Structures are given as C-alpha cells and as structure tokens.
Amino acid sequence: MQDENFKPIKEWQQTPTGYYIVPDDQLDIKHSKTDENNNVTIARCTCPDCSGNRRAEHKNEPCVRLDMSTGLGKCYNCGFKFIISSKVTKYRRSQPVKKYNWKLPTTTHLTPLDAVAIDFLIKRGIQPQTASKAGVRSAKYSIRGVEYYCLAFTYREGDRVVNIQYRSTDKHFAMESECEIIPWNVDACIGQESIIITEGMMDALALMEIGYDNVVSVPNGADTDLHTFDRFRYSHFDSLKTIYLAGDMDEPGEQLRQKLAEYFGEARCRIVEWRIEVPISDEEGQTKELVAKDANEMLKSHGADAVLQCINHARLCPITGVETVGQYYEKTLQIWEHGIEPGKKVGWGEFDDHIQFELGRSVIIVGEPNTGKSTLADDLILNLALLHGWKAALYSPEMFPPERHISRLATTIAGRKFRKEIVSTERGVDYRRTSIPRSMAERILGWLCENIFFVTEEKGRTIYKLLHRAEQLQRRYGVNMLLLDPFNYIQLPDGAKSDTMKIGDVLAEIEMFAHRTGMLVIVVVHPAKLKKDEQIESLYNASGSAEFRNRADYGIVLVNDNNAHRTPESDSSLHVLKVIIDKVRDDEMGYKGTCHLSFDASNYRHGPVQTKHIHGELNQFIVKPVNSQCWLDRTPQSEIDWPEEITTPEDDLPF
Description:
Blueprint: E1 13-14, E2 20-22, E3 29-34, E4 40-45, E5 64-67, E6 72-75, E7 81-84, H1 88-94, H2 115-123, H3 128-133, E8 136-143, E9 146-157, E10 160-168, E11 173-175, E12 194-198, H4 201-209, E13 215-217, H5 233-237, E14 242-246, H6 251-264, E15 269-271, E16 275-279, E17 287-291, H7 295-302, H8 304-312, E18 315-316, H9 329-338, H10 350-354, E19 362-367, H11 373-388, E20 391-395, H12 402-414, E21 421-426, E22 429-434, H13 438-451, E23 452-454, H14 463-477, E24 479-484, H15 499-517, E25 520-525, H16 547-551, E26 554-560, E27 575-584, E28 593-600, E29 605-608, E30 610-614, E31 617-622, E32 646-648
Parallel strand pairs: 2-7, 12-13, 12-14, 14-15, 19-25, 19-26, 20-23, 20-24, 24-25, 30-32
Antiparallel strand pairs: 1-2, 3-4, 4-5, 5-6, 6-7, 8-9, 9-10, 10-11, 15-18, 16-17, 21-22, 26-27, 27-28, 28-29, 30-31
C-alpha cells in the first residue's frame, strides 16, 4: 500500500494489505468536518510517525487527512498510510475472501471427437488430429437447461485438467463451475522464445493447423479477466522475447490487444492484423486486400499462406505514453524550413503583440470583481471565431438563461443592443427607432447556430463529463474552442486529497485534453479574497491554488483602471481595463507585459487603447470609440493595420 521505498520511523504492526495500525490514543486531532448528523467525517491531525521528528515550526501541522468512517489515514508530508486500531476489525470484515481451493473437473464423460465435432472442425479448415493433439474432446453437456453435443476444450496444466469449456456447434458456451480459469494451452509457453495469444480456441487451432505449436488462447474471449494470467506470468511468460497479440479485428478485439500489451509490456509485443495485400496474378503491379475477422476465418476464406503472411507482417506494438523523434520528423523539418506558424490575433492593438493564440493550449483569466472577465472571454471567442473560423463550446452556468447569454453574444456581433426597437425619451416624448432589423437578427442567430454551442451538465459537473461533451461537439461539429466559466462550477474529484491538489488534478486533465484534441480551452477563475488595499497582480491571486499559474499556457489578469490619464480627444464614456499578461509559455506565442483595453458597455466590445509616451515614459492613453459596425459585414480585423504607440519627440513639446 505504501511506496515500495517507504520505511516508517517507528515500529508499527501491519494489516495483511499493508496498512500500519495506529492506536487511537496516539492521534492528535486538530480539527474536523461533520455531516448533517454532527458525526465526524474527515479529521485533520498530526502524523503519528513523522511529526515528532519534524522541525519545531512544523511539529503541530495537521499533515494527515483521516477518514473517520473507515479509519484510514494518510500523511501528505511523509506518505505514511495507516488505519486506527478501533477500525481494524471492521476493515478486515469488509475485505473479500479469496478462494484458492479450486475443484478439479471430472473427465469421465469426455470421449474422442465424434462425427458431429469432426464435421464442424473440417468445415472450419481444421483437421481432427490437430484438435485431438490439443486436448479437444467431445461431450454431451447441458447449457442453460438444454443438452448439446459439444466440443470440450480441456484446460491443462502439466498432466492435470483444471477446467473444461464446452462449445456447441451453434455457439453456446459453458465452463465447469468452481474450477480455476487459466489460459488455454498455457504450457505451450514452456521452452519457447515467442508465443501467439488468440481471442478464442478455434483461432488457436487454426494456427496449430498451419504448424504453430506456440499458441495460447485467453479463456473467455475479449472479456477475459487478465488476472487469469497472474499465476503464470513469471513461470511461463517472463522469459518470452516476443508475444504476438492475435485478437479479432473488431472493437472488443482491439481493446483486448491493448489490455494484453499493457499487461505484458508493449516492448516485446507485436500486433497481428488479419489483413494482407496480395498481388493479382494476371495484372502486373496490382494488388488486392484480403481481410478477415480472425485467424480461423482467414484460414477458411484465404488459406494457410494468408495466415502465415499476417503473422510474418505483425507490426510492433506502440508503447503507451512514449513517442519518438521520428514521429515528428516531417513536422519538425517544416519548422526548420518555414519557421513556426504564428498564432492568431483578435485585432486589439498592443494586446495582439503580447498574445497570439494557438490551438491545443489553455488560457486562464482572472481579475478583480466587476472587470468583466466573462464578457472578455466571450469577446475573445467571438473574435477568434469570426476572424479565423474557430467554433466554440461554452460552459457558462452563471450566464443563465441561455437565451439571454445568446442575446449578449448577438449584441457583441451586431455592435448595438440586440433589440427590434430602442425607445428614447426627450422632453417627455418617447421616440422609437429601429435597432436590429429582422433580417440582421436572423443572420446573426444563423451564424451563432453554426458556430457556438453550449455544454450543459445537470447530473454532476465533473471535469471528465464536461470534457467528454466538448469532445463530442468537436467530432460532430468541428468545435475547436472550449470556455469553462467559471472554474468554481466544476465539481472537484472525491477523495482525501486537499482542494489544492484536486484543483491541480483538474487543471492537468484540462491541459492534457487541450493537447490531445487540439482545442483552445479558456478558463475563467474568480480571485482569492484580497486584503485591504491589496491589488491583483498575477495568476497567483486566483482562488484556490497556485496551480492556475503553473498549468496555464496563457495567463491574463484584469484590473480596473478608470483613473488612467486620457488625452482630451479620448472617449470618456468607455471603461478602461489594465490587462496584465502574466504568462506566455513560449516565445512564439507572445511575451509577458501590460497593455490596456477599452470596453463599451453598450455592445460588450473591447478595443485597443493607444499609449502616448513622453521622454520614453507612459504619459497618456488615447481611448478611441469602439467600432459599432456589425461584424458579419466588417473587413477582417486581421487585415487592419493598427497604429503603433505614439511617441512625442522633445522638439514638439510646448515648453
């Protein structure tokens, strides 16, 4: 149960499963959580093993999380895992009892292969002598109350029959009860350098028919519990150099091959696929593909030579979680020749200099209250979608109901309130004017229907479910952006870990998801509670964990800056945001720094703020009106040349 290198400081008794037993009176509980009935559920205490040896300032730290219902605890300082003595009896009673007193089946009812069995085997391309040599017999056996003439496959270890599987000619199966289940023909491994593992005994017989005697079958098809190999893993399989995985060509067969490869180690496994290219005799240079479901079907349909070619052309099994430089050779050569493709911009002046967005990355946005974190995230997504054709999935439970959220998005696209008419009152008289004609409203909603999708998860908000929904939208509609807003609506995993560790696990899942699917994932995070006069300066101010900064590819921090000194010609009605680019993972994606954006509350749009420098120091901001043109009619912002920052030379100064 512990790390294999872990050694406790003190002497403790242990349970058979490896937990150290700690007397209740040695617990120093600091604080605890209770349920609705005031029963203690989780307690925090010092470590019975390591706390006494820690430095004085850490001796009283509650480094242990203890589940009081089970009595199991773990120290997050040293890794000490224990159970309190008062819970040991209950724990032992909860463990399943393993049965090792297997019965041996009777074999007196088995007979040599009869006419029914021989006819069945010959039709499958297998000679009865091959089956008899492998221990296949005939038997009458009752399966679900019906008696059948069956082939009886005997499971042998040494000279003992330890189990028997019965198969009727119309594919009904049964095994002896209370007998050990082991791989079929497992002794074929003895003295061999390689073995072929099939998904069924008929496939194994097909390979034996063409001369292979180093063949083993899993006992229960694709659903086999691989623990049936445990007893033979080292005695029979450990010395083998090559293991050929020759399962069926369907999805369960593929899953079985993956399980076997992980069990035995991918490095010595080869994948056998029941397909082969063969030349067409009367057409020079032309080939055809022979395909079958399994070894027996390949033998029956295409002959022994086709089966041999499939074995000889078995490919190396990919090693899970390992990649070679060769897999990236061509893509890396493209970088050498053309450089790294620049990321995508959103047309926000200096902001674009700091950040260029790439797919397959994660963006963390944190900011002061009322800085419009969600609005900025929506604006970013709409700009990326309209300028670069990226589609988005939104998980925004705070933006309720969805139709109101959609109307906000439509307002941003239109550049004005998404309303049929706007009423203004002057001198006591109401004036009505058209805001959005129906044709424009339908065009905007039509674009949103094709490019924006919503993720909802009412039955549990785990990160796994949310990411699954997003991946399904990617496969069906081509979505390549995901917004998670806000993070605190995501349900953290259960378990005894601290919330900080759980947040780290969730962010790791998001990061791996972005890399695997190539989606840009934007996460909006609330700030931690600030002290008086404290300001947000980095992602470390995010609520819950420093992991938000550690895991982010892009880190954006928003701060209100309405006291910014503006030039006289600036639009005073616009809100000004200070944007701190706290993290950019790679130089090609941008660089850290600070810029400013304007915000128009009438249409939820952001715009660039130009900076005016005097003597090289920032002096004034030029805040121009945000464009209110409908984005479906605009010139792409990526084609607009935004003016550089304005620098006033000394000769032009009025003093």
